[in-house]
Amino acid sequence: xxxxxxxxxxxxxxALLFASACAKSETKNGVTKKIVVDKQGKxxxxxLQEAINSIRAFDPEGPTTILVxxxxxREKIVIPDYVCEIKIIGEDKExxxxxxxxxxxxxxxxxxxxxxxxxxxxxxxxENLTIENTAGPVGQAVALHTEGDRIVVKNCRLLGNQxxxxxxxxxxxLCFFDCYIEGTTDFIFGSATAWFEGCELHCKKNSYITAASxxxxxxxxxxxxxxxxxxxxGITSVYxxxxxxxxxxxxxxxxxxxxxxxxLGWHNWGNPDNEKTARYAEFNNYGEGANTDxxxxxxxxxxxxxxxxxxxxxxxxxxxxxxxxxxxxxEVGKD
Length: 335
Prior knowledge:
Pectate Lyase C-like; 5 helices
């Protein structure tokens, strides 16, 4: 019978077994499938998009790793829905930079074409990268836009202003480990289910961190666990979230919340009807902004028993870890 391990231990096992499993799965006839991208022209490709384009559709030979050397890659990247089971790993998250600068008002392109990196494929892993939109504070300008399922973002910097990270697709799942995510307004938004573990959320404006649009029939939206919220100088009033659509679901638990978090905690986006459906909750947060005495009465403070039911296993589901070969459940929890 599977035991409920604490999240930290689970994540450690999660990461270690992922590395082991991928090392095995990426080997065919003793040769690891690997592509190297280098701006200096000393590798397979000088462009990340060219490397992605070289991968076969639904590659029958299995996963591929793309290693990206340090450099600034000014590219508008698309990972199509037929490119799956790939890892894109930078040499250094500070020095391996994918950048672009589109924004919603540019040629009337609207929010959803402003991405720097668009992910439509499933089973994609990003690590040690900076993904940024440098358009500046000019409205919606997405850095990372995801529409695929089972996406992992680890030890990355996601930089932008309004709408930095869009997580799309009803029922799609993502996890963010040890990432730095910055922005101004609604800088994490969308309908997908996403687990954030050990991330720093840096707020650059008196505004809103999240704008979930979780569908009514989806149990989990955004879960922030052991994360840290930081504020730019002069920032004094930040809300944890507001519902982009009814039934938005967001939880902050075991997180550090600084002075400058608005005492109300949550905003109804100017629509009182949202208060009837929004699924907002907190548990065991700490710091000067964690006091819940003045929180809106339509958000929930979880009991320890309720919080114990929100685990990464339940949120991301068994097929996530099995599909990516992260973890064989029958090897966990045995006496």
